[in-house]
Amino acid sequence: MPVRSPSPDPFSSFLAPPPNESPASRTARLASEAEDRRVSQSIDDGLREERAMIRRREKEVIKVLLLGQADSGKSTTLKNFRMKYAKEAWRTERASWRAAILLNVVKALVNILHALSTRPVHSSLETPTADLSPTTEQPPSPSNLTPIDNNPFPTAMLSEPLVRLERELKMHLGPASEEIGEFGMDEGIRCPTVTSPTSPTVTSPTSPTLPSSSSSYASPTSPTSLSPQHQPHDETNIHLQTPTPCDIPRSPPAQEHLGRRVLGIDTVLDGLLTDLSRVTSPDYVPTDDDIICCRLRTTGVTEYALTFPTGMDEECGVGEWIMYDVGGARTNRYAWQSYFENVNAIIFLAPISCFDERLLEDTRINRLEDSFLLWKSIVSSRFFVKTTMVVFLNKVDILRRKLEEGRMVNKFLPSYGTRENEWKVVVKYLRDKFKEMSRQFSPQPRVVYLYSTSVINTKATSQTLKSVRDGILREHLVSAELA
Ligand SMILES: Nc1nc2c(ncn2[C@@H]2O[C@H](COP(=O)(O)OP(=O)(O)OP(=O)(O)O)[C@@H](O)[C@H]2O)c(=O)[nH]1
Ligand SMILES: [Mg+2]
Fold first, then answer.
1. Where does this protein have compositionally biased stretches of type Polar residues (predicted)?
2. Quick one: 72 and 162 in the same domain?
């Protein structure tokens, strides 16, 4: 059978020169085709160059992940970074912290009233059987509280509008306003908009989980629910009552309780509580310290961009850092993994004051034990073999206070043994412990930068951040040279 030549491609015949092309037309056509090829080549070169530039920029962007359990101080550390290195953005969002600060104050007042109407029967449950036994102390629960004598405040009368205001503020602020497993006087009348902590959200790179600045709570010049002049409901006008909530923190029973720290109220709020008239004024603009002290739970993962010099001296160009702040509760941690690729540095927050506390989300687990387990899983992860590791042994101020009040570390951490119950000794012990765990569980030898911190102290933290920044940059430069 004769072999038939394949029929010509209709497209190639469409592109072929005309059969009767003159020599002059042919020359012109070839010149035009050469020019087309040149233009196309230069477009390809441009695209290649652009792609290479994007790859180079991606390499230059330093990714820093803040990790650690809930309430360890990750967001507070980020606030310090932004206060120092993103001054303009920090300044413009200052007013939007107002509602969150008010909520912190109202929650504390509700707690004080609750404690004034009740008192704990058991002061301590210190009977661990092993290191970091779960049988450590718990905050007072409704079942171990009894009414307190000589309480000067009509507790129910005062607490009702406060609880209502607390609920209003929570509705305004959303899920971040509620602690996981939060226990308060408003149990049973919780904010209906609060969503399950098991469904964290990932916020957009540019939107911190802050209250909206368009709201009446957020504007520094607009009224707040604590202001007497502009009440949404008469019953929330807490200034009109006698005694007023402003009298509560200064009252002798409250002072006695604050002094004994049986309320679970952190020292960070003391400043706000003793200066309530400032915070409740209609012209109130939060200060740096107010914002640093303010607690707003992180419910998903937030990204922040910071701009830094790319080298050690200030004459170098600037580079970009992206910092990721995550929700630290156990129920939030599954969302972390999508941020693990190509992380340059991790700042791990271990709140070492919590040696005698349990996790809110799982009260069987000691908080220090949880930090050890987290640290072990981070240093042993294959994702972080080349990641710079920075550890903040945080909340040293609270550790010091607890030890001064006579809390014994070895009651909760028997391996601490007979070492002196002194904060510097405890810090050294824990520093060695974190280092040793890194040595034992890291797939490759690595350097760990450890700092003892109280990140609510912005001045001291500013120095630490500079050192952390330089350390991360230095390691980044070294690895870029090796790559
Ligand atoms: N006293 C004291 N308080 C601190 C320190 N660090 C943080 N805090 C306070 O502890 C609370 C919790 O801090 P955050 O930064 O919100 O904790 P977080 O790790 O972001 O917590 P999640 O968002 O729940 O994961 C805030 O009220 C802070 O002001 C510290 O070193 N000392
Ligand atoms: Mg946070």
1. 122-136, 143-153
2. no
Q: What is the CATH number of the domain that holds 354?
A: 3.40.50.300
* Strands 145-146 and 119-120, bridge-based pairing: antiparallel
- Picking from 293, 322, 356, the residue at the C-terminal end of a domain is 293
Integer Cα distance of 453 and 449 in angstroms: 12
Q: What is the DSSP letter of 306?
A: E
ipTM beyond cut 0.95: yes
pTM: 0.73
What is the number of the ligand closest to the CA of 302? Answer: 2
Residues 6 or more apart whose CB falls under 8 angstroms from that of 400 comprise 423
In terms of domains, do 288 and 392 share one? no
- Sign of the torsion angle spanned by Cα atoms 461, 462, 463, 467: positive
Ligand 1 centroid to Cα of residue 333, in Å, is 17
User: 43 lies in a domain?
Assistant: no
Q: What is the pLDDT of residues 85-117, one digit of tens each?
A: 899 999 999 999 999 998 988 888 887 777 777
Q: Could you tell me if 76 and 184 lie in one domain? A: no
CB atoms within 10 A of CB 383: 15
Count of structural domains, the chain: 2
CA 299 to ligand 1: nearest atom: 23
Pocket residues for ligand 1 (CB within 6 Å)?
68, 70-76, 266-268, 293, 295, 297-298, 327-329, 349, 394-395, 397-398, 454-456
Judge whether 162 lies within some domain. yes
Domain that holds residue 196: 94-293
CA dihedral 90, 95, 96, 99 (to 10 degrees): 140
Express as a percent the part of the chain with pLDDT over 70: 65
